Amino acid sequence: MGKGDTTAVEYHSHDFNFEWWKQQVISQGLCPSDVQPHPSVEEASCDDVEYCQADCVQETQQSAWEQFHQQHEKGVFFKERRYLLVEFPELSNKDDPYVVLEIGCGNGSSALPLLRANPKCKVYACDFSPKAVDATCAAASTLGDLSGRFIPFVCDVAATVPVLPDTRSSEETQQTTAPPPGSCGTLDILACGRLLLDSWLLSASTSPSRPLADHALLVFVASAVHPARTVTFLRHAAAAVRPGGCLLFRDYGLYDMTMLRFPAAQRLDERLYKRQDGTLTFFFTVEDLHRLCAELGLQLVECEYCCVELVNRKNKKPMRRVFVHARMRIPVEGISHKTL
Ligand SMILES: C[S@@+](CC[C@H](N)C(=O)[O-])C[C@H]1O[C@@H](n2cnc3c(N)ncnc32)[C@H](O)[C@@H]1O
């Protein structure tokens, strides 16, 4: 099926039962015995030393992902995720204009299907890797004139104060892939980023002019954030969304095949791993999402494991993928933000 094909997308979410899979994993010793299904990300309980170590690890992430995107800039590493329109039906609303903030846009695999499917939607897409943002711009340029519907920018959403790289050297700026006319350029990226940053910083105020999104899309990005920064990360995401809007979340889940395959040496913490290229990946439980929402004052309106069975083309063996799907609503009365 071609990328632009709009035929119905099959969405699998319950190919097998999570509890059954958990028993298989435990009884067959497929994962380290100290992995518990219930403990959750513990930002609050980190002591100073742990917090400093987490900070050091997190600070290496921007460059690790920048290198990752540099290595994959020639090919499309992430495929278009057209199933998102089925998974989150609010994104298929063709009648009303709506605004989505995508965090961790990678090479545009989520932004593109939205822009393609809904001529009335406007997508702010950010990533802390400038290479990723350039890749998303290049991919979006294939869609033709987006006339103000696509606003990419660079921002580290997990930073204590969201950081925009507004000091890129002129050399770096010149190396940036030249954007097609009317789409995005480095200056525009930075200007848009600044606008959004301002909205975050003002989020505790009642400014009616804040450019809030209807929804924020978090697809396989929270797992790339050190768990000691997850609360900060989600708080920034929530601050950019209007009351009543949602954080739409899909990410790696406990006992996902990729978790079971990680070598022990790459395990940093119970459910936190470092890939060989230095990027982090954390495997979420549904309990994590319950705790995070309670801490942030968000309403968890949907949260479940999605269990998808794929078959390895070469050896025909089943590959059991586990994802966490969640919808976290910003209460209509809004949330009170702690200092950013
Ligand atoms: C696994 S990729 C997912 C990309 C895309 N969402 C997708 O589903 O294909 C994670 C992306 O999040 C970005 N990222 C990780 N941490 C981030 C942060 N703190 N702020 C902004 N982007 C971040 C990375 O650069 C990378 O592009």
Automatic annotation (TrEMBL):
GO terms for biological process: methylation. The keyword Metal-binding does not apply. GO terms for molecular function: RNA methyltransferase activity; S-adenosylmethionine-dependent methyltransferase activity. Keywords: Methyltransferase, Transferase. This is tRNA N(3)-methylcytidine methyltransferase. Its EC number is 2.1.1.-. Belongs to the methyltransferase superfamily. METL family. S-adenosyl-L-methionine-dependent methyltransferase. It holds the Pfam family Methyltransf_23. It comes from Cymbomonas tetramitiformis.
